[in-house]
């Protein structure tokens, strides 16, 4: 039977009152847990998992998957409005989205995020329909050497992030890498930089750091200039996208969606890394890279499209091989097991009704989310009309509760506060904050994949050129390092000749 | 003629015998009627250091599902994932909640191995053991197109080229790492162990053809070799599985390599927990394990459910802890 016929049957499964109701519940819950910092979609799914025992397995996975991609839509909200990433995958959204909000363009940021997420999400599901088995095989070609080069590509790009000097950006990235070194060595299991503190054994998680460095620091910095901060006065009709904004975002959505999709199918990466890489890719392609970090709508469009595409793409290795591509798909797998269904390479053959019902539900869920988010964008954006003195304590509370909720350990609240101070210092000294967070997210992947690669190759560096995909990525890394150098040389040459 | 007194004494005796008989019957039936039992007030949190979807998480969620659905317990029981630090976040939380009657800790191998690796006091020696109730075996698999047909082929290749055969596994110091160490020791060979972030990442690496071999639980392994993506060389257990799908897979032991190593999971209560509460929980876990739902699930997942309750659980966990320590000292993972 071909895919379209199976998909048709999937829609039949999907269009029952019960299933539609549960898809709606799923995406609503996803929207909420996505917006609340600290509780990401994976944690939200785990929380609701016990409630699905009484309902049929297909309905259960439809609802849980709704939380998974609903979270990608919801995470935008807090990132844009209060500069606190609602969930891990919207860290990059906070960078430019909040700057847009400061300029009174919160409505536009939220709208483009919803539209980008929708388009990239739908495209990703279409890809799931037609090319799941070959793509799953392709995903397996990615292993430690490729992951290492991918992460390296992200790290080398940090230099260009931020508006001031590349040196400052690199210093911030280096600090991020150092913070990531704290904890237990992933390969040998020895302790590093823990100073005998049990609390540091597990390392410093990036979520409280991001919450501190973006959310808390923002509040601290604004305390000094409360008098100057005017509530953002926007009229409702300013909330919609301008033609210029839409033109700037169109290709960003396409590129972000593509990057997100390919990172998403790799079992080692996930939506957070997808969004970050999409952001740095977009900056490279942009005609006005200098605006990134100061409220570039294409930055928001790229990273939001990427995280939603990635969250759908992660279903490909899960459905075809039983290998989860992200934290959320791991919970989906657990749900299948608890409902008595064995995931694995035979799932698509043995449970076509479930698999195709799930895929069809993703079309439905994304449509619901778009309808839900577009009218809500101006509504939420008008929250910013509240005077900042009243808003600030709220932001602080949301930030700290989020830090606590991510681990249920009070230590993370102190981490968030400490990094709030670090972030405040960085604002004062005009250091860009995004490179630090980016480096912190990429560091574990960078480190363990380098060491895994060298174990696989018995210590030889040739593994990075012998594998075709690795060689290709290595070329990209070299190019990304050389391009700015070449550009500088050229500029000097033209200056001399002039 | 019997005095009133002796009659009375006789009836007391009779009653005592009856009680004893009832006790014996109930003991045979598997319920520890001798111990004083007290129910916790609830709601109860079962903590695990595993993320949602990990084996310990799925097992405890299954237990909670059965407990609640079949009305074995009537207080709310919720699962809480306290991830991070190779389960140390979770067990440190429980160790800090002395005498908390509404809290249980899920025991999985990291709860034993992390303290050994970090040189911190044993967790199991401090908490109150409730039950060890589920065990799972491992299958050793090689690439489907490899020249290795038996474990002997594999071992001989490894002898010829030490450290040239690669094994993908989950985490440094995890079950797969220790199983690799056991094989190295039993066969007198050296291999290269490549640790990944999770079991599924290791499986992805194996399926991508990056390594020669990997381990899987019997449940994970079945779809892999049924779809001809791997060749099972042996199970790391005492005897073969009874199920038809595994009947042709020999044990490593019968091929001459004494490698018997598997996974097990259990549950314990915070330090200083009231023995009556512990006895109550032991009884509930015993009841869960006896349900048809649980037993059916075991068959499907190729798991065993040998039950060790209370003091027996304590002995069982101590023995496993000693095995872990010896193995980890062998591979240099134990902190002195």
Features:
heterodimer, A: 498 residues, mainly alpha, two-stranded antiparallel sheet, 1% strand, B: 336 residues, alpha/beta, D-Maltodextrin-Binding Protein, domain 2, 2 domains, 11-stranded mixed beta sheet, 11 helices, 18% strand, globular
Written account of the structure:
The complex is a heterodimer of chains A (498) and B (336). Chain A is 73% helix and 1% strand. Chain A has helices at residues 3-14, 17-35, 41-48, 57-82, 91-102, 106-139, 144-157, 166-181, 206-223, 243-265, 271-285, 297-313, 315-321, 327-338, 347-350, 352-381, 388-407, 411-428, 434-456, 463-466, 468-497; strands at 183-184, 191-192. In chain A, strand 1 (183-184) and strand 2 (191-192) form a beta hairpin. Chain A is globular. With 336 residues, chain B is α/β, with parallel strands linked by helices. Chain B folds into 2 domains: 44-136 and 263-330, Bordetella uptake gene, domain 1 (D-Maltodextrin-Binding Protein, domain 2); 137-260, Periplasmic binding protein-like II (D-Maltodextrin-Binding Protein, domain 2), CATH 3.40.190.10. In chain B, helix 2 links the parallel strand 1 (44-48) and strand 2.
What is the structure about, briefly put?
Chain A is an all-alpha fold. Chain A is 73% helix and 1% strand. Chain A has a domain at 3-141 and 247-386.
Secondary structure layout plus pairing:
The complex is a heterodimer of chains A (498) and B (336).
Chain A: H1 3-14, H2 17-35, H3 41-48, H4 57-82, H5 91-102, H6 106-139, H7 144-157, H8 166-181, E1 183-184, E2 191-192, H9 206-223, H10 243-265, H11 271-285, H12 297-313, H13 315-321, H14 327-338, H15 347-350, H16 352-381, H17 388-407, H18 411-428, H19 434-456, H20 463-466, H21 468-497
Antiparallel strand pairs in A: 1-2
Helix pairs in contact in A: 1-16, 2-3, 2-4, 2-16, 3-4, 3-14, 4-5, 4-6, 4-12, 4-14, 4-16, 5-6, 5-12, 6-10, 6-12, 6-13, 6-16, 7-19, 7-21, 8-19, 9-17, 9-18, 10-11, 10-12, 11-12, 17-18
Chain B: H1 4-28, E1 44-48, H2 55-69, E2 77-81, H3 88-95, E3 103-107, H4 109-118, E4 128-142, H5 151-160, E5 166-170, H6 175-187, E6 192-196, H7 199-207, E7 213-217, H8 218-226, E8 231-235, E9 262-269, H9 275-290, H10 292-301, E10 303-304, E11 308-309, H11 310-330
Parallel strand pairs in B: 1-2, 1-3, 5-6, 5-7
Antiparallel strand pairs in B: 3-9, 4-7, 4-8, 4-9, 4-10, 4-11
Helix pairs in contact in B: 4-11
